[in-house]
Amino acid sequence: MKDINQQDLEKNIPLVTRKDYQREVKAGLVEFGKEKIVVIAGPCTIESKTQVMEIAKAVKDAGAKMLRGGAFKPLTFPYGDPLAQPDSNSGQPSVDRLKVLTKKEQMESAEKRLSYLAEAGAKYGLPVVAEIIYADSVAMMEKYVDMFQVGYRHMWNMDLIDALSKTKKPLLLKRHYGESLRSLLGVAEHYEARNKHNFAFVERGVAVPHTHNPQSRAVIDIQAIPALKEFAPSVPVIVDPSHSTFKRIYVSSVARAAIAAGADGLLIDIHPEPEKAWVDPLQALDFKAFEKLMTEIEGIAKVLGKTI
Question: For 129, which DSSP code?
Fold first, then answer.
């Protein structure tokens, strides 16, 4: 992969790399950057109204500033989609593991879950963020979310880039684990060139040939935090220690390291009973572990002259 060079800064990514640009990234009343660390926490998948309400209260009490929740689920494999359950209030995922939802069914399921997310956010004073996968769902999602998340699979989705450039809502842009920082800055420049400026980066790990575990999906790139701040100092950098580690006992350690390295926030999976989570049960923190982590990163932030 090519490194970022002077020609890139002058010709390819001149907007996102501006040094004196005053960028405002604000979701509801929550502002990113400016010596404030924003912790976004919630379920990887919105399973029921009861579940997301319980989680919203817990993360609010622990000090999180935003609530995240998955409504669309772009899974690695097509079968066993947990959102196929017709009535999510039952608290049980679909038992039909061979069912593949149509796009219409996905949209209907997502809107129902987004309504739960928005209601929970409103009740506990937490702006909400959810992942988008279809460009033509922007108008529907705008009614419920305060911020859009662009997942790593859709980093280079030009339909999404065009559609999201037209919304006033801010974005979380995740870097794909096989893409360089140069590519991520290129994606950001596509938004900048379309006059979309209110976005933050999310570092969620990179693929490497050798690691501690051959089944690991990714390894967190701590060096990406100061590197992104070097090249694009106006863009907040959020770290996802959940999906990067894919292992619960590593999440808090990586989260603490990210804050110490200068991250502007964290994106963390939370579940009341992590082992029973419909999707990604391996990395979600329970309420007690999350509360402990918040206390720890508050101490680190204080040393750096920042607040949670």
Answer: E
